[in-house]
Write the structure tokens for this entry.
Amino acid sequence: MTSTMQPVPVPVVSRQAGMRERWTRRGPLLPALVFTIVLTQIPFLLTIFYSFQNWNLLNGTPRTFAGLDNFRSTVSDDVFWKSIWNTLVLTGVSTIACLALGLLLALTLQKRFPGRGVARTLAITPFFVMPVAVALFWRSAVFDPSFGILGWMTDLIGLGRVNWLSEQPMTAIILITAWRWTPFAMLVLLAGLQAMPDDQLEAAEVDGARWRQQFRYLMLPHLRPFIELSALLLSMNIIQTFGEIALLTAGGPAYATTNITYYVYLRAFNAFDFGTASAYGLVALVLTIALAMPALRLLSGIFQAEGRR
Amino acid sequence: MSLHSTRQRGLGVIALSVTALISLVACSDPAASGGGDAKNATITVALAANPQMKTAESLISDFKAKNPGINVKFTTLPENELRPAVTKDVATKAGQYDVAMIGAYEVPIWAKNGWIVPLDDYVAKDSAWDAADVLGPIKDIVSADGKLYAAPFYGSSSFLFYRKDLAKKAGITMPQKPTWDQVAQYAAKMDDKAGGVSGICLRGLPGWGQNLASLTTVINTFGGRWFDESWKPQLTSPQTTQAVKFYVDLLRAHGQPDAAKDGWEGCLQQITQGKTAMWYDDTVFAGSALQQATPEVAKNLGFAMAPTEKTAASGWLWSWGLGITQSSKNKDAAWKFISWATSKDYIKLAGEKAGWDAVPPGSRTSTYAIPEYQKAASSYADLTLASIDSANPKQPTVEKVPYCCGVQYVQIPEFVDIGDYVSQQVAGAISGSQSVEQALQKSQDYTTQVITKAGYPK
């Protein structure tokens, strides 16, 4: 599979000249491509190999061929399916929350007002704080029922002090994930808004369009590729969430916050069962592709942006 | 661009990102080798990044002065990274480390796999090391088949931390050996929800080394056990159920709020900030608790033996030991380092140079005879020693168990897997998302499945 390069429209020329032309253009990219293949595809092939092996480091027996045993165990392992479901919930809800909040922030911060520069910087900050520091800070200053800010807020509105990480663990993880990734969505959408020509909006205003109509019929269609792009990038990043889970809940209670990344980690580096860990990773990959394909088709292909606009 | 290639490219992006995730599994450390003879050797030591080991690292010039020609290289990793790094190294015989720091749970497993070498011959030749001085129960848990496989750097048991002032206010005199029934009553009396002080802090965080360690000692003393003598799991037996119910009920009624998120780190914070009246945890945290506590808490912190029910003692046992890897090319030099770092002289040196609270505790009887240490650790030194000496790693339970030796864990390679699963279910019961019975039934089923697959039941 080729890498993540942007597609280059290939001009129609004679076949031979086209070949030479193509290679002079692609040649300089080859080292990067080879590097990427070595770093990603060789481990990938090894993972496929290990997934057919019976290989637990701790029991000291040599590796043996396991056939499809590791894959069969995915079917019977409830925790695996629970972790797939958790991954879906975490990724889906966080991505939507990030987009909604990011859009709101972008619309606000696009308007001119005194101190906009400072406000923009502050709005991006969560994205640049180390995930570990974020998790530890949220643990004691936000989620803690006795001295956390959320405990104080729920108390104010009469809900009492909620035990966030014990009783609402998934909501808590989604909150912190959305908080961390919203600035990313905001950055992309703000760039999109700034690329929008002012005269269109002015014309609409002259025609008597209200703000809501402007937003619905001008801004949203213009922003669509930006929203799609950030949805894709966000879900790709959020699907790998690890640090927050490891530090806040250790995947619990009762696997309520174990996503597939954390579960593969537990199997591989806690139980040292590399065979099943590899198989689980592969099954997760196949499922991700199966789910992502229709989603991507539904989004009508963001890489066709030129064609659509 | 056609729709087809668009899809492919999208796929490519996803495949690459997920592959990066999976490739975590496939990577392994590059092999490094250390050559040379015993006189002129470089040894690589893998250590856990805890304060005591950092002290050892800072005092290495003393070792070099005594052993010219031996160069020591340290690889210091956080405890949870040390385990995978070192396991991969020894299991694949990569030979990166000559000396590895290993937890007591792993020592017999590694010994059985032939990853570390027995130390008896080195000990016999090294009379200054004085094997008889090493605490007996600690020696038991870092040995296999009667041979010593790791030299204990420090050892610990578990006991009860409590606030003397709060106990006095509630009219409680803490006995030196309380029972769990008493502790539950005291927790109810000292629980002050309005004042933000819980009755007791117990580990609730999932993990075989987190909530399961505390819980297993409770199961043991309530007369429960993990397995019967023919390896049939006993997680739904009346005794185990009673013990787990006791733990979960106590935690839900009078424990710290949001309990399923707290491991020892969380409870250490709770006790030092005056947010809880009691805490059942490792003896090694006594020093840190006193250091980090607010002045009011520090002057009122008292200690008692691990609460019991049906057994004479219930404290757990843990040790971080130093072992020599099978793949080491400098075993003699490696022993010289281990002998230095676990010797009586080193403990004196660490006390004098780095302060007596930085001394590795719980490994040697002689440590507790040093007047300076006695003075620095007066409130918990004797209780730590008594806790370790009374722990029974050969039979921590009322009825017999098919494994040896371990108190808060079962000495088999599959325990990490089983333990993580059970600890998750227990955390679910603590958080209230399922009942204790449901948690234990799932645990029993999972354990039966793993243990049967591994071929243990007779």
